[in-house]
């Protein structure tokens, strides 16, 4: 059986190698590739993707997994070997359950749909994108049906990004969160508006980039195993546990853009850099889920990076970088500016408090659409109503409403958004657990020390890679199921003080 | 048969896609990869290389080539279809003739040998590298023997880089060249030494890079289909005909380093960018040979980039970039500095006139070693003697002698060097032919116009990719065989005037 396991390991490593190089080709496309390289690159990505898929769906992998079934049962569930078999089986079944004709048809549709969406956005007209979106909904339903036995039709789709999560877990959690957030947003937005003028001056790109790098190095992002480049949209990408890169973008007229996206992506990257090095080349060397990944980017970006303690240490340094702009701005003014809460239309621009309402709305719409309770043509109207109800504002057009996110238009309907809010919920939960073990974390942070927090996260989350699901990680850390309470306590405490609620 | 040809095309395109992405992974390793990425990257490169090799040696390709044999005979030899079949057959036979055990053993040895060479260089001791080099010689002989029927044992090895070239063609050409170069070097070095102090001041990196880019854009390097990055050793690399990149390095205390290596690599890149776009994704979309490739880098670097006409246009611009350093240096002083001839030990630092003597010596040693007329252990002594005879100086140690080039230590013995001098010879030959068709080229150059020359090269060389061998290209251009005379006329005329011979 050791030999069979070794064979399986070799096969998954080969696939892992191909996927890593695919990622590299994608990274290059987003960073340095000249425009003339696009056409051939698309073909090269397709070729490599096809070969990787062929390797993953090789019946020999199915046979090995079958041969290892009894052996797996004898292994402790939390052993690395059992984890490797389990995660490989999950990947394999996801890959073989779907007919390849369906995949190529759906890919083609996604690519068309994406281009039509760009046109629709330009023309600010949902109707342009609607027919494709209706087809996408059809494809999404079909995709779910390749995994029979689900409780809710969205479950197999959610499982792609958040393995083990289901509608029955998420729906009540999000409903409760929404119930508590709507009045909190109302209470905050009744207070006088905060000024963020101090972060809206002109801040030269190179200085912003240098300061951002200084910050994330201090947080613990290892630049010997990573680097930062500029892209249109920031992302984190991994080529191996020794090479986990991030990208950022800079707005010279808004200091927050690069700074917080840099910390956000560094949070993702520190997670990957913290995975057990022995998992290298296997599917265990990956984040547990979209939600757990987002919990780390949001924890570092918001709970740490937008905290008063963090800026106690970093603000004098930032002032030295921008003496003309910030020299006479006091810490409190700056702290309020970077934590300004407001009713806004665009999810990606939203603050910590309102953000989840944007996400929960999209999650609910996905369920409504999949269940057939909402028709695609009625989406813009539903969007307006829900925004009014939850955030008290209505988008004046489709561009700032239903057309704003690319997810549904380039991917599928179902499972696209829950990770963002699961991430926030988990960030609060994990941070509270870390504080319980190490009450000294906040005072360390005020001195610019982040080692205790990072080590706790590494020990309890990072090093395990994808061995445990989000639910299992929470269970191991808190002894119970996922709950929104720690996150809500965090929000109420921070914003209660900020807005004198 | 059209269908078989289409199948063949699809298969070579798949291999081409894999090889392109392999190149990208190599480029990234040399430019931006953090040090921590090295270990996994090596494995990923090996995996992708193995898969590409498996695809190339798939018996189905052999069968298709067999099926197409009669069809190919009916095609005009200069048709693209015939070219595609011919070049694919060449690749295929090279790949299948060698047992895979031999390949992996030889690769392993090459990698070991390279590391030992680095150590030997550090310790300045050939004896450290000798045992590995002796094995390399053995492997090189075995490799040649997988291609029986050769006239000279070096022929199959030369064929890797310079298809169609043989010892019987190169040896007399190089012997004659040496006979003419040795006295030319003697005559020049008897003259008073030229001062190159003006290019040895301090020139900031960013200004050097900006000026270099301005120059190669003007020459015709298309930055929409290319880019330039920094590496330890400059190179040109292609990911598709729409993405042909170059790298450079800068010495702030020597203006020549970045400038001429930039033009050199841009020469390689313009060749690739000029290949018929219809060849994209096939083995035709490649340079004809190492020699023809080098003819283009050297033509643009030396015949164009070190000419007086070129600097008539560019020198006032360069002076504007470095007014403090060059403002009071006249064009003639600068022109002499960048064309300074001297007896020197290191091939890569050598000037236009002495360079070929370094190369011919190495070529001759490869033949001597392969023929068994020279033992590896006697190489350092032979090196010293030959340097004395041809260049009038002797290396004081191994580092500046037999250990200076990595070729033999990381690759094989045989076929490693002829391309450099073939390139020089061809650069003279092609340039003279271009002048015959377009006598206006030099006066255009003085105005900073390079279009006529570039179009002539594209029409006669670039667009054909690898369809014709070097010999066929020469035959098509001049109606005769390769000859050193145009190149020697060029050297004698330029350096005769410069050194008043």
From TrEMBL, chains A, B:
Active site: 265 (proton donor/acceptor)
Enzyme class: hydrolase
Record field: transmembrane: none
Cofactor binding summary note: Binds 1 zinc ion per subunit.
Cofactor(s) named in the record: Zn(2+)
EC number of this enzyme: 3.4.17.19
Molecular-function GO term, any one: metallocarboxypeptidase activity
Gene Ontology biological process terms from the UniProt entry: proteolysis
Top-rank taxon, per record: Bacteria
Keyword vocabulary terms for this entry: Carboxypeptidase, Hydrolase, Metal-binding, Metalloprotease, Protease, Zinc
UniProt KW Ubl conjugation keyword: no
Binding site for Zn(2+): 264, 268, 294
Statement: the UniProt record of this protein carries the keyword Protease: yes
Reaction(s) the record says it catalyses: Release of a C-terminal amino acid with broad specificity, except for -Pro
PANTHER family referenced in this protein's UniProt entry, alphabetically: CARBOXYPEPTIDASE 1, METAL-DEPENDENT CARBOXYPEPTIDASE
Family the UniProt entry places it in: Belongs to the peptidase M32 family.
Function: Broad specificity carboxypetidase that releases amino acids sequentially from the C-terminus, including neutral, aromatic, polar and basic residues.
Protein's name according to its UniProt entry: Metal-dependent carboxypeptidase
């Amino acid at each position: 059986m050791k030999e069979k396991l070794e064979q399986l390991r070799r096969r998954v490593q080969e696939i892992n190698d191909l996927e890593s190089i695919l990622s590299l080709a994608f990274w290059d496309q987003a960073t340095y590739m000249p425009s003339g390289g696009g056409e051939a690159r698309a073909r090269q990505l397709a070729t490599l993707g096809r070969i990787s898929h062929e390797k993953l769906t090789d019946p020999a992998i199915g046979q090995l997994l079958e041969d290892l079934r009894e052996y797996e049962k004898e292994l402790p569930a939390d052993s690395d070997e059992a984890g490797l078999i389990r995660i490989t089986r999950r990947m394999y079944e996801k890959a073989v359950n779907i007919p390849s004709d369906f995949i190529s048809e759906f890919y083609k549709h996604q690519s068309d749909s994406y281009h039509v969406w760009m046109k629709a956005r330009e023309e600010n007209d949902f109707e342009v994108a609607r027919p494709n979106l209706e087809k996408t909904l059809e494809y999404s339903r079909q995709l779910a049906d390749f995994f029979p036995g689900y409780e809710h039709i969205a479950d197999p789709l959610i499982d792609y990004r958040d393995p083990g999560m289901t509608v029955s877990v998420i729906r009540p959690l999000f409903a409760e969160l929404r119930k508590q957030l709507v009045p909190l947003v109302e209470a905050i937005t009744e207070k006088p508006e905060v000024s963020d003028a101090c972060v809206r001056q002109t801040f030269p790109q190179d200085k912003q980039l240098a300061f951002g790098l200084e910050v994330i190095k201090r947080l613990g992002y290892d630049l010997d195993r990573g680097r930062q480049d500029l892209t249109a949209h920031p992302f984190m990408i991994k080529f191996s546990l020794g090479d986990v890169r991030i990208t950022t973008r800079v707005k010279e007229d808004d200091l927050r853009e690069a700074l917080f996206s840099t910390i956000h992506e560094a949070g993702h990257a520190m997670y990957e850099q913290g995975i057990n090095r022995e998992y290298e080349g296997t599917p265990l060397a990956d984040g547990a889920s979209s939600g757990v990944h987002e919990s780390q980017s949001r924890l570092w970006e918001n709970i740490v990076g937008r905290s008063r303690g963090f800026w106690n240490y970093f603000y004098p340094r930032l002032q030295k970088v921008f003496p003309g702009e910030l020299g006479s701005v006091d810490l409190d003014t700056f702290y309020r500016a970077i934590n300004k809460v407001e009713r806004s239309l665009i999810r990606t621009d939203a603050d910590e408090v309102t953000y989840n309402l944007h996400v929960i709305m999209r999650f609910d719409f996905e369920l409504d659409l999949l269940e057939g309770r909402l028709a695609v043509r009625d989406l813009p109207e539903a969007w307006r109503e829900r925004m009014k109800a939850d955030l008290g504002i209505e988008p004046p057009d489709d561009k700032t409403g239903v057309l704003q996110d690319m997810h549904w238009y380039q991917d599928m309907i179902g499972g696209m958004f829950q990770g963002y809010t699961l991430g926030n919920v988990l960030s609060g939960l994990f941070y509270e657990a870390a504080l319980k073990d190490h009450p000294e974390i906040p005072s360390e942070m005020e001195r610019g020390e982040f080692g205790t927090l990072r080590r706790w996260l590494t020990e309890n989350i990072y090093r395990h890679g994808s061995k445990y699901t989000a639910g299992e990680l929470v269970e191991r850390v808190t002894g119970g199921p996922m709950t929104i309470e720690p996150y809500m306590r965090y929000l109420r405490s921070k914003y209660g003080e900020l807005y004198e609620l």
